Amino acid sequence: MSIEQRLQSIDTPFLLIDKPKFEANIAALRSRLEPFKVQLRPHLKTIKSIEGARHVLHNFDSPAVVSTVREAEVFAQAGYKNLTYAVGITAQKLPRILALLNQGVDISILLDSTAQAQAVAEFCLASNCSIPTFLEIDCDGHRGGIKASDPLLIEIGNILHQGGVELRGVLTHAGESYECGNKQALIAAAEGERAAAVEAAVNLTRQGLPCPVVSVGSTPTAHSAENLDGVTEVRAGVYTFFDLVMAGIGVCSAEDIALSVVTSVIGYNPQKNWLFIDAGWMALSQDRGTRTQEIDRGYGLVCDINGRIIPGLQVSGANQEHGIITVSGERDLSEIALDTQLRILPNHACATAAMHSGYYVADANELDYWHRIQGW
Amino acid sequence: MSIEQRLQSIDTPFLLIDKPKFEANIAALRSRLEPFKVQLRPHLKTIKSIEGARHVLHNFDSPAVVSTVREAEVFAQAGYKNLTYAVGITAQKLPRILALLNQGVDISILLDSTAQAQAVAEFCLASNCSIPTFLEIDCDGHRGGIKASDPLLIEIGNILHQGGVELRGVLTHAGESYECGNKQALIAAAEGERAAAVEAAVNLTRQGLPCPVVSVGSTPTAHSAENLDGVTEVRAGVYTFFDLVMAGIGVCSAEDIALSVVTSVIGYNPQKNWLFIDAGWMALSQDRGTRTQEIDRGYGLVCDINGRIIPGLQVSGANQEHGIITVSGERDLSEIALDTQLRILPNHACATAAMHSGYYVADANELDYWHRIQGW
Question: CB A12 to CB B376 under 8 A?
Fold first, then answer.
């Protein structure tokens, strides 16, 4: 049976990875970063899958980032030993971090306040452990973090260092890079990330504080950086799949997108020339990341079952289990028959994948299924 | 241990049902509809839980609606025997519908085109079965359905009836009622739903076609209808939890909302007076249903752990695992300490619940856990 026939035997909607594109995307960032002599630390919050991680990480000692303690626990259980939990830590989550350390996992945490630093130092003292800790640096005012020049950086560094906590380094994320309008802005965002992280590292080491790791990253900046001097590792997640937001800022083309939702046509409105599909926001997510971009892609672009984009079509509306496809131009959408399978390219791969418990994974000959990690 | 202490022992983020509010909301719609002598057919796409359905449905013969075949299968497995799958049917899904019928479940389907009617008639002939089928009526141009006056209604009715398919009735949903701005508009939307469904039923029966069930409904119209003459059943789903969208159109108050996401404070940005929480869009969903309402509630309103709304606070931003709380006014948000648990009221209960695999359920004395149905 052909892959197309095998896909047609699966009840829609379901999530599909185009494996050749997925592998090409992984190889592309590896190659791009090679000349910079930095370590790539993939963010597993996008793939959230043990089977998928095998393609992203070389071996169990390969570095990775996670966005939940649950991810850390599941990947650790699978054998991965080098993880960063890159969301601000609080006391509540420290016992689970300690349990991972005690299992032999090198798990590092992140913080940006004296209150957090004191909580971690107290916990380490009480538990007779040392948790590797990153200081979060603010490079673009996007969310949290400490400005590299802020005296608070040294103050927090001292609380940790004197409290017996292992200062692992500094970490920053150019969240604003997702809003960049052109290549120059992307290069500037990457340089902003680098400069902030390196400045923070210099300021820490000048005060005699350790800072072995200088970690930067986001998919847009990882794909745009022209200089990574002083940086030791780059983090990125959505580069594995790409999505319409990344295509909109020019980091990839829509043809590179490796993730889609396979859906079936379930109806047609002749008055409005609307095609209904069985992928609503429950399957596509409500991410409308392209809404503020130059070209709004609605809830996603429409491809045939083989992944070829059908020009002019997009998912313009979504209810819980209904998507509405419209067309720019004169084409009569009733030409696309009931039960026809289509692939929908997502605005934001992380958000769309989050709506599903797993992926079908297809290449020219094989169809596989990978489970996704859920919960916290 | 008090309920507050027990909640504090659960790792955030998690979904919480305030059980007294949930039960009061269920009782309120039952009481409201009682004088109309119509059947209430709750939509289980909101609760998606067997444990939860026990509170919504009287017994295994109680009528219910589902939004996926998976829901139908799981509720049937639990014993429920009277289900409507209220998303346009296609040939692909008919074998699973037949399997349910063969298990003794009275499951009805929905369609609005000759192509679907022919597919169902052919399937019934080939499988020697008769699937109870609703004709979807368009009452407000919101999505799909046939206009009550459209000759297509009779044409499709005849295809089904002559093809040996059981014509169960007509079904409509005032999707536009979610956009209503005031009580009068809600009453008008309810009357539009009723009038369209009744007109369609009259047109079918005049042509000698059966139409035993006249089904209307949405939470806004179910809570607003002043006349249900000719209607036999009312469907509603989100009335069990309510949410900020429903509060925004005046169908409930924010204090009635029974569903929230419990989250912890994980950081603070002193430059911006931003409080960070560990509930991003992965826990809250990206539903921003109040964005187009008179008052935009961001990603949700903020309550203390006991469910009391904290005036002026809302979740204004959300990344994957970070939420950003801002305040209107001068209050210094750093007063809310690290690790403090908060409850976030959702824009759209269906969407927020969909991000979780289950609910914690609390009343004054008991803490329970209900699983949610996932997938399709």
Answer: yes
pTM (2 decimals)? Answer: 0.97
Which helix H or strand E contains B325, and what residues bound it?
Answer: strand B323-327
**Residue the block writes with tokens 């890079």:** A177
Residue in B310, B288, B308 with CA at minimum distance from that of residue B297: B288
CB burial of residue B202 (10 Å; 0-12, 13-18, 19+): middle
Beta bridge partners of B326: B314
For residue B376, the chain A residues in CB contact (below 8 A) are 11-14, 278, 283
Task: Tell me which CATH code domain B38-238 carries.
Answer: 3.20.20.10
Look at B143 and A87 and tell me if their CB atoms are within 8 Å. Answer: no
For residue range B10-28, list pLDDT tens digits in order.
Answer: 999 999 999 999 999 999 9
CB–CB contact B319 A355 (8 Å): no
Q: Which of A69, A267, A375 is the closest to B112 by Cβ?
A: A267
A324 to B278: CB separation less than 8 angstroms, yes or no: no
| Helix, strand or coil, per DSSP, at residue B250 | coil
Q: Do the beta carbons of residue B284 and residue B360 sit within 8 Å?
A: no
- Is it the case that residue B240 has pLDDT exceeding 90? yes
Hey, where are the domains in chain A? 3-15+251-371, 19-239
Architecture of domain A19-239: Alpha-Beta Barrel (3.20)
User: Which residues does residue B169 pair with via DSSP β-bridges, in sequence order?
Assistant: B134, B213
> Per CATH, which fold does A3-15+251-371 belong to?
Lyase, Ornithine Decarboxylase; Chain A, domain 1 (2.40.37)
Å between A168 CA and nearest CA of chain B: 20
Average pLDDT score over chain A:
97
Q: What is the DSSP string of B144-156?
A: --B-TT-THHHHH
ipTM: 0.96
Q: What is the mean pLDDT of residues A106-113?
A: 97
> B43, B71, B90, B352: best mutation site toward chain A, by most A Cβ within 10 Å?
B90
pLDDT digits (tens, 9 = 90+) for B203-219: 999 999 999 999 999 99
Q: Which residues from A are below 8 Å from B111, CB to CB?
A: 267
State residue A186 phi and psi, 5-degree precision: -65, -45
